[in-house]
Every structure is written in C-alpha cells, then in structure tokens.
Amino acid sequence: MKRNIIVRILVLFVAMTLAIEAQAQQNGAATPKSGTNSREVPARLIPVPSTVSPELQAVIARPLSPALRLVPKTVEEWRRIVAIKSEQNEPVFNQLRKLFPVDIESETKGGVKTYIVTPKSIPDENSKRILIHLRGGGYVFNAGESGMGEAVLMAYYGRIKVISVDYRMAPDFPFPAALEDSVAVYEEVLKTYQPRNIGIFGTSAGGGLTIATVLKLRDMNVPLPGAVGLGTPWADLTRTGDTLYTNEEIDDVLVTYDGLLEACAKLYTGSSDMKDPLISPVYGDFTKGFPPTILTTGTRDMLLSDTVRVHRKLRQAGVEAYLQVFEGMSHAQYIIVFTSPESREVFQELALFFQNHLGR
Amino acid sequence: MKRNIIVRILVLFVAMTLAIEAQAQQNGAATPKSGTNSREVPARLIPVPSTVSPELQAVIARPLSPALRLVPKTVEEWRRIVAIKSEQNEPVFNQLRKLFPVDIESETKGGVKTYIVTPKSIPDENSKRILIHLRGGGYVFNAGESGMGEAVLMAYYGRIKVISVDYRMAPDFPFPAALEDSVAVYEEVLKTYQPRNIGIFGTSAGGGLTIATVLKLRDMNVPLPGAVGLGTPWADLTRTGDTLYTNEEIDDVLVTYDGLLEACAKLYTGSSDMKDPLISPVYGDFTKGFPPTILTTGTRDMLLSDTVRVHRKLRQAGVEAYLQVFEGMSHAQYIIVFTSPESREVFQELALFFQNHLGR
C-alpha cells in the first residue's frame, strides 16, 4: 500500500512537470535573463571511454597537465614557457619523423620562413598540387621545424607536397603578423601553382588562421585556393562557444579557458578587437565563394563549438562543407597521439577530401 | 626576488610535467586498467549559451525535468507514464500542426498502422518519391498521431509525402515487434515506389530503428532505399558512448542514462541481447551497400557519441555520409523546439539531402 502511494505521488509529480513543460512550450520563447540561468552541474566521475582506441585510452587515462592553467605575466615568463615547450617538441617530432618518413627542406618564401615537406613518392595526380600548412599553438608556441608534425602527417598520408609556414608569433609579433605571413606565402605559391590546385589547412590557431587567410585573400580579390581543411579551428578567441564550458576539465589538451588559452588569446590580439573577423573568424562573412571545406573535431574538444559554428555558417552560405567528429577525442589530439588509428583516419579523410576537391 | 623564485618553481614544475608527458607519449600505449582511471570532474556552473537562438536559450534556461529520472517498476506504472506523456503530446502537436499545415490520413499498410502526411503542394520532382518515418520515444512513448510531429515537419519543409509508421512498442511488444512493423511497411511501399525513390528517416529510437531496418532489409536481400536520415540515433542501448557520461546533466532532454533511458533500453530489449546489431545497430556491419546517409545531433546531446560512432562506421565502410552538429543542442531538440531557427535549418538540410540523393 505504502509503495502504491509513493508511485501515485511520483506519477502526479511527473504529470505536473510534463504539464509545466508543455505550457512553457506553448508560451514560446521568453528571452532568458542573461547570467541568471546558469545550470549547476554536479561533480562527476567520468570513465575512460571503451569506445576509443587503446592508444587514445592510454592518453585519456593520464592526469590532466597543470601546464594549461598557467598564466605568464611578463614577456620573460612567456619566453621561458615557449622555450620549454620547444625543447619538449624535439624528441616527439623525431619519433614522428621516424614513423612517417618524408623529406624536409627549409626555404624562405615571400620573405617568410617555411618548410617544404615532400613525401617519398608523389602520384601523378598530385604532381601539380600543393598544400599550405598553418601550424597550431595558440599563436605563441610551436615555432620551427619541430612544431610542424601535422605537415609531416599530411604529406605522408596524402602523398602530396606540403609547405608549412613558420609564421611570426606573439609575444614579439602579435596580430596581424601571422596573417601577413600566411598571405605572403600564398601569393608566392600562386606564382607557380594554379589556385584551384592549392589547398590550405591547419589545426587550432592554425585552423583559425586558415579561415582568416581565406577571408583576407577574398577581400584582396586574390584567387582563392581550391579546398580548405579546418582542424578544430580556434575561430572565436573570446570565451563564447558552449563547449568551452561543457567540455571544461573533460578536454585533456586544453583543460580550461581560464589559464594559458585566454592568456594566448590576449597576447595575440594585443590592442586589436578580439571579435575582429580576422582574429575570431567565426564572426566573418562566408557568403562570397568560400572554397569546399572539411572540418575535424572530437566529442571532448573544448573547440567542438567553434568547429560546428563555423560548419553551420559555411552551410548557411551554401558552401560544400564536411564535418567529422571523433568519439572521445580532445582538442587536436589526432596530431598529438599520432600513433592512434584515429589519427590515421583523420588524415586519410583529409587526403581523400583534397584528392576529390583540388584541381590537377 | 620572492616573485622570481615562485616563477622559477612554476617553470620547473611545468617543465617536469611536459617531460613526463613526452616520456609517456614515447612509451606508447599502455592499456589503462579499466575502472581505475575515472576522471573526477568538479561541479560547475554552465551558463545558457549566447550562441544559440533565443528560442533554444529559453528552453535551456529551464530547470531540468525530474521525469527522466523515473524508473517504472511494473507494467502498470509504465502504462500510466505512457498515458501521461501521450496526453501532454496532444496540445503540443496541435500547435505544431497549426504552424506547419499538412494533410494527415490514417491508413493500414502491410498490417501496420501508419499515417500518410501530405504537404499542401508537392513539386514535380517529388511526385514519385516518398519518405518512411520511424518515430522516437525510447520504443515506449509517442504512439499515435500526436507522437509524429517530426513527420509533419519533414513533409512541410521537404514538400514530400511522408508515411509515418505507428509501430508496436513496449511494454506490450518488445523487440523485434517494431522492426517487424517497419520492414512490413517498407515492403508494402516497395510495391508502389522504386527503392531508389524511397527515403527512410527517424530520430532517437526512430533513428536506431531506421539503421536496424536497413541492416535487416539488406540481410533479407530486399532492395535498399535510396537515402537515409538518422537524427541522433539511439544506436547503442548499453551505457557505452562517451557522451552518455560527459553530457550527463548537460543534455536538457535525456538528462541521465540512470533513469528512464536505461529502463526503456531494458524494456525494449526484453530477453534478447542488448548488443544484438538489430537492437544496438552501432555494432552492425555497414560495409555492404548502405545508402547515402545524413546524421544530425547537437553538442549537448547525450547521443552525440552514438551519432558520431555511426558516422565513423559509415565512413570507414566508404558510405557517403554527412554529419551535422548543432551548437548547444540537446537530444532531438530540433523536434521539440520546432519554432526555433535551428529546427528549420535541420529540416532544410534534410530536405536538400533527400532532394540530392533520391531517384525521381
């Protein structure tokens, strides 16, 4: 009997809730008061997903790095952190190079330092094609050869020549130095290659810079590249995208916006407006001939929102745009865990995309 | 001086962390001990996103419904909850019908109850096409006309005839009754329409059932439909997908797996194996001629993982598959918040997809 009463109360409660919901739905959209409606999400234990590769599981199982919580206060502190990261890149890059053999040559193009990455063999269909690579690292980290692992992976899997741009970075060179460099290299490449045979791609800050470069070239009336690859693009440097909150402490790589990420955003922006479409290109206009685009992200990525917001803007503008989202993957992890099958899959999809969308 | 020491300690700490990370990376993948490596994610305040429409913001700002935490214990309790939900559906469905005028007729097809939804005008290119709709509701809820709002939206936006299958459901009819019904209707439709002119689609349980239906038809050597639409498909009824954890209490619609969701999974599965590919079709084989597919989900969706896992399996099998992920959107919210621009965008993309991929 007691049980029956509890059930009746429960049913009544649910009925009331559903009734309130239905009413709210009929009333339509009342604009919520901003700031007053944050949801309290309780503390949780989140297991290592069984649905990703063992390689990715091993990385997810590790404790979160405290490095991302750091906020350098002086140029001196920035330089030290940059130097540490650079030193740490070296052995990882050497391991990557052993696994994915390619040739690399340093070359100055349009006054900008670049690395030309050439795979061991290039099929005929790719002989007149080239990809321009813009590296990630928050517009601060990953200068030099050891910061361009992504270009090696792309050249290897795509069997296509890649030119990686060692663009200038903060703290010495904030916006728009990086953009000036990427545009200069593109214009230089344009002297040798047909625009439709040129692809441009990058991840994180490199993905954001890729979008900004295309928008800038369009505004300059320069012929646009044939295809674009955006890896979890940092398309909004402000704390706006929803997954900056929902995936906070869940993303293994970025961890939080509060620390190094916000610090990089401010350092790169300098005295400019952080919502300038050439800094936060999600606020740009994608309607005038943006090339076919592939976008890559993961379910744990704090820039999942940036990626899908750009994808929607491209689709709203009628652009041919393909989205791929990888299970359990954090920000840019397909570059970091380059021994994983997920990494291979990302670059094989990119290779297929460029194969299908670039001219010959 | 003191400040300088703190900076040095901090830098040393970060250097050590990065060094440990680099070492772990070089050591490659050690299989993590299962269960021992759950990550503790602290309690957080998650604001209503400014990046979604006011209509969606208003819904996200509401408190979570306790209805999803309920676990009915007896068939009697299930029936009550089903009846309550059904009553609540009525006024919402009436509002939807007013906003999206179509004609609806009840008809028995292959021994199964269906609703034929006909838009006010059908363009020539759609005159020989039809879409089969399988509704969502955890294989328990949303029986009858008021549970098929999605079919109305699709017919309206797509200007195409839709036949919505009022398939049998638990508790009275667990697996495989629903599948028998969807297959029977497809075979009946096949008597009047060319297979390549038939599309099949559904959301949530309806999305999972859509996949299961295609896999079953293929195993029966029945000619497959021309195109498939999967709305956040419930492709894995077990508690496996990563976003079942990461988006718990963040998804407004499903809220948690622990309550009604798991109860529905068990009720539908009955004495069968929950990992049977016809119950949890993410475990199915997609290699043999699966038709072109569009998949829809949102960044807050607890079935984001199910959706992207199916997308990857389709792509791995070489299937033409398009993924769309909406910012800040919870499970199936494009059907629930049908006045939102996000809902319109979802169905316009579906309409375009079927237009491009169905025969005439």
Overview features:
homodimer, 360 residues, alpha/beta, Rossmann fold, eight-stranded mixed β-sheet, 10 strands, globular
Question: Could you explain how this protein is built, in words?
Answer:
The structure is a homodimer of 360-residue chains. Chain A has one domain (54-357): Rossmann fold, CATH 3.40.50.1820. Chain A is globular. Residues 15-34 of chain A have low confidence and may be disordered. An eight-stranded mixed β-sheet of chain A has the order 3-4-6-5-7-8-9-10, with helices on both faces. In chain A, strand 3 (102-109) and strand 4 form a beta hairpin. In chain A, 41% of the residues lie in helices and 15% in strands. Chain A has helices at 2-27, 54-60, 75-99, 149-158, 177-189, 205-219, 243-246, 257-269, 304-316, 333-336, 341-357; strands at 39-41, 44-46, 102-109, 112-119, 130-134, 162-165, 198-203, 227-231, 293-298, 321-326. The first copy, chain A, is of the alpha/beta class. In chain A, helix 4 crosses helix 11 and helix 5 (177-189) crosses helix 6. The interface between A and B is large, with 93 and 94 residues.
